[in-house]
Amino acid sequence: MSTESIDFQIPVSRRASFNTHEPNTRNLQPVNYGSIKVLLLEGISDSAVSIVKNAGYQVESISKGLSESELIEKIRDVHAIGIRSKTNLTKKVLENAEKLITIGCFCIGTNQVDLEFAASRGISVFNSPFSNSRSVAELVIGEIIMLSRQLGDRSKEMSEGVWNKMSNNCREIRGKTLGIIGYGHIGTQLSVIAESLGMRVVWYDVLPVMPLGMSRSMNTLEEVLSRSDFVTLHVPETSETINMISETQINQMKKGAYLINASRGTIVDIPALAAALRSGHLSGAAVDVFPVEPFKNGKYFESELIGCPNVILTPHIGGSTEEAQKMIGVEVSNAIVSFINKGTSLNAVNFPECDLKSISITDKTTLRIVNVHNNVPGVLQQINYILSPFNVNKQVSDSRGDIAYFMADITLHNTHEINDIYAKISNINENIITRVLY
Predict the structure, then answer these.
(1) H or E stretch including 392?
(2) Same domain, yes or no, for 296 and 189?
(3) Mutual orientation of helices 322-342 and 46-54 as an angle, nearest 10°?
(4) Is the separation of the CB atoms in 340 and 102 below 8 Å?
């Protein structure tokens, strides 16, 4: 599988294009970089659009998601695609992506992408796991206060003309215990904010993590559930976390406690949660994510939680702040550009992580070869044999599962030799993608 044909000649203007931030280096870009096409879906931020446009690519930005048939047609000739949480890049879709080399998930999760199949096609996947941490943490804090004061129900009543002033079961959050399931970047931010408001914090995580402030780690999920007045979930979707909070776990929570889910919709058994709310075992819940979410805005939402008392339902907006979307846009679009232009795969979620510094400007015939191949013995030996007649300035390689990645900067005797090198590496049986950067 190959993504570019080689018609190699370094333009004069390109020879003088240097990276002002790295003395004695020059910027890299693919051969025929002006034909690189990028498709951005679901209204990805202007910051991301500007970065990929400034890289010199052809960019199409669409404000919504696409149906599977539309996506299959659109993805055929693009080299990079940017998505958010509603677009599903399945094996069926990716099989039609004839030129695709990288995917940007402008969000935290990547479960909407078939990561293993993408890697098998030499397609790297990048996301932004931390950029919206503060936005999600602030939403949860707001929901804790709203639930403890029943503000959702009171606001709805007032909008319907009902005055219902009351203090029964309305409490301050100071002195209450917050239980955090998943003590990662969101969980730790939430922990600090909650303590500053006078809450006690306990948490559980499957990984050993350093506690912040006065928070305390618990040995089991059950300990957190039984101790907490508020339980908030911040875990990824895996086979182990699906229905992680179901009837058994809800019954382990304090009577009158509150549950908040701003992680993934499959983590909570929604019918069990609805039953606990209607029975009064739980005093309230806030849910931002759902097992099935509408593909577009409008009157498409259905859930057993509709009509339950003291429930805050929001349409997956935990990270939907201008600040978060801008940061996500910058992080993921820069990762896409770096992979296309320099071959850098650092922080890819499904791919070996490799990087080389920019090429020295002292010799204009120095080029970069990047190669993705099946991880079997003997391939690196074949590549190095092909490159042996030339000066290999530096190289790096790594593997992840069945996929291996190789990068090398080489100095040619003349630029026409690149066609022969490209053809020989591409013809290796285990080759997936070979690219030339200059």
Answers:
(1) strand 391-400
(2) yes
(3) 20
(4) yes
- DSSP symbols for 176-200: PEEEEE--SHHHHHHHHHHHHTT-E
Pairing of strands 58-61, 37-40: parallel
Answer yes or no: is 139 within a domain.
no
Burial of residue 385, with CB atoms counted within 10 A of its CB: 0-12 exposed, 13-18 middle, 19 or more buried = exposed
Contact between residue 282 and residue 257 where contact means Cβ atoms under 8 Å apart: yes
- Domain containing residue 342: 29-127+321-351
One-letter amino acid at 188 equals T
Query: What is the identity of the amino acid at 69?
Result: S
In a domain, residue 426? The reply is yes
Which pTM was predicted?
A: 0.81
Cβ proximity of 98 and 92 under 8 Å? no
Do 156 and 267 lie in a common domain? Answer: yes
Name the 3-class secondary structure at 227. helix
CATH number for the domain spanning 176: value is 3.40.50.720
Number of domains observed in the structure of the chain: 3
Nearest to 218 by CA among 207, 231, 204, 208: 204
* pLDDT tens digits, 74-84: 999 999 999 99
Rounded to whole angstroms, the Cα distance separating 395 from 409 reads 6
The span from the CA of 122 to the CA of 348, in Å, is 12
3-state secondary structure of 137: helix
Report residue 296's pLDDT band, with 50, 70 and 90 as the boundaries: confident
What value does the mean pLDDT take over residues 109-135? Answer: 94
Q: Rounded distance, CA 136 to CA 155, Å?
A: 22
User: Active-site residues: which are they?
Assistant: 264, 293, 316
Beta-strand ranges (E) seen in 175-301 are 177-181, 200-204, 216-217, 230-233, 257-261, 282-287
Q: What is the rounded CA–CA span in Å between residue 37 and residue 30? A: 12
Contact between 5 and 437 under an 8 Å Cβ cutoff? The reply is: no
Instruction: List pLDDT tens digits, range 363-379.
Output: 567 889 999 999 999 99
Owner of token pair 């390109």 = 14
For residues 129 and 111, give the distance between their C-alpha atoms in angstroms, rounded to a whole number: 13
